[in-house]
Amino acid sequence: MTVMEQRGAYRPTPPPAWQPRTDPAPLLPDAEPYRVLGTEAAAKADPELLRRLYAELVKGRRYNAQATALTKQGRLAVYPSSTGQEACEVAAALVLEERDWLFPSYRDTLAVVARGVDPVEALTLLRGDWHTGYDPYEHRVAPLSTPLATQLPHAVGLAHAARLKGDDVVALAMVGDGGTSEGDFHEALNFAAVWQAPVVFLVQNNGFAISVPLAKQTAAPSLAHKAVGYGMPGRLVDGNDAAAVHEVLADAVRRARAGGGPTLVEAITYRVDAHTNADDATRYRGDAEVEAWREHDPIALLERELTGRGLLDEAGAETARQDAETLAADLRARMNQDAELDPMDLFTHVYAEPTPQLLEQREQLRAELAAEAESEGARP
Amino acid sequence: MTTVAVKPATMAQALTRALRDAMTDDPSVHVMGEDVGTLGGVFRITDGLAAEFGEDRCTDTPLAEAGILGTAVGMAMYGLRPVVEMQFDAFAYPAFEQLVSHVAKMRNRTRGKMPLPLTIRIPYGGGIGGVEHHSDASEAYYMATPGLHVVTPATVADAYGLLRASIASDDPVVFLEPKRLYWSKDAWSPEQPTAVEPIGRAVVRRSGRSATLITYGPSLPVCMEAAEAAKAEGWDLEVVDLRSLVPFDDETVCASVRRTGRAVVVHESGGFGGPGGEIAARITERCFHHLEAPVLRVAGFDLPYPPPMLERHHLPGVDRILDAVGRLQWEAES
């Protein structure tokens, strides 16, 4: 065969290792955030679930207000409020089965409480008496993670381990919009997709990373779109529509449990309060913006739906308020008691067995405490 | 009684055997990292494990060290005992936040409720002609992080014993493998492995009366050679192999220095802010009245790790060690 004949027979082929791509279309999020309340989808929502969500939202709002008040009284060192984000916090806790795991960030104490953890134990980190006040294994809630997005790979590893052991367990991991810029967010999503780990990632896009708005955080079409790059579905949901958040998360949990792999959910919400009690939000945003979001308040949206359909009357609303007051009063009373601290505990759990060096240092502190007690005793 | 022939084995073989035995004894032990599966690791330490135990027990992960360690944390939370391989010393740095903020703190943060039994294997140190980012002596970073154990073997038998002990530990262990000793050989039988060594005990590798060389990992053979060469100068040097930087064995170190009255700390890590400063301070605090001379350090220079064609000038060698020994104020003796 001549060279020209060979050329004639030549058909261009793809590079040898090239594989046809997964069709990205099914992974893409909807154009608009999914909503239930005030739409036709609301008719299909379970009235019992809506009432339960309402009661938890009202409690959650009161919990946020009480915790913020405790910072003013010096009973909490700091409180990052989730006021305005209660729908996400509550739905994240309610979609999980007992055997599942929740991986919260520092702003998610409400989700932790809604999952069943004692509020006083959930708040020890922010009171400052111990980093994690609850036993993570009791309610299957990982410690609150302060370093951003670093809890996400933990959720992936735990879910992967459960699957290896043949356990029917799903992990739900929470992160904010700022956290999606962290490397650990990327690595966690990539590992989860490669391993098809039963994980749900819930991004609460509340508009701000402390003071920095989303536009300075990402140029992605939406945070949910990031899922496509990892080969997992991205879902966009109205984060203030508790019924919608619950439905989308429940779908993702079901999918994960059935072996369908991870999902990234972006919930569009708003941080009504400042970053923490120590922050001044007026330096980076206007009142008009906050007011617009107050019109789209998660409790108001759900209340409108429930009253419109005759599922909630004044007596029902009053019961929810009373339950919330009971929670707040209990929290207030217990947080107003001084934490019982034993400085010797500092050395107890650094290692399974203290090193010889720590044993020496423990004795040093013991002696210092004894001297302190003696001088206090000698004071007239 | 049958006798098992004790043949020379390499440190690499002993490490592989330790992983294999740990995986056999305990189904919760999982090996994970870059290239650890099909390839058996770039140093072949995990050779054959994926074939023997399956890819779920010896897993090729995506190429992301924070992700590897972060997911290992989650696996340990769920009752597994992960053994993570970081491919090289300087490639472990992306995992630093997971290590410092979570691995080291989880037990303490949760008041003992959530211990993390995981082992992080890191090939470290120079002397193999590696190009940039393949030869760092990174031990000081880990030593400075409370909550971690930091262990490094210098012999074939210790490689097996200490790795078994590290995997069995309920605390996280940074297990530093001196990569230039991977191919060092010793009489050691995989069929009759030595008993598992406890973590935290140093050992006197060579008894002597004149001065103590305190070292670990890659610098042990150099110190042993220096001790032999020192005989010609009339010095009878003792050599202490620390084996564990955390916990630190003050007892063995101080007992030796009290006997000899002189000490030189030898390591590849830079001297400024390196382990030698801590060790010298501990000796001075505890043995001041036994010392005939200041504790000296022979360390790597305080510079970014050199290109391979210059690394011999950087690494502590026999001459530099003997020079330091010569400066231990012997005049007072004569």
From TrEMBL, chain A:
Secretion signal, residue range per the UniProt entry: none
Region (Disordered) location: 1-25
Keywords (A to Z) from UniProt: Oxidoreductase, Pyruvate, Thiamine pyrophosphate
Keyword Oxidoreductase carried by entry: yes
InterPro entries in the record: Alpha-ketoacid_DH_E1_comp, DH_E1, PdhA/BkdA, THDP-binding
Cofactor(s) for this UniProt protein: thiamine diphosphate
Xref: Pfam families: E1_dh
Protein's UniProt keywords contain NADP: no
Residues in Dehydrogenase E1 component domain copies: 64-326
Entry-linked Gene3D superfamilies: 3.40.50.970
Official protein name in the record: Pyruvate dehydrogenase (Acetyl-transferring) E1 component subunit alpha
Organism listed in the record: Streptomyces werraensis
Gene name of the encoded protein: pdhA
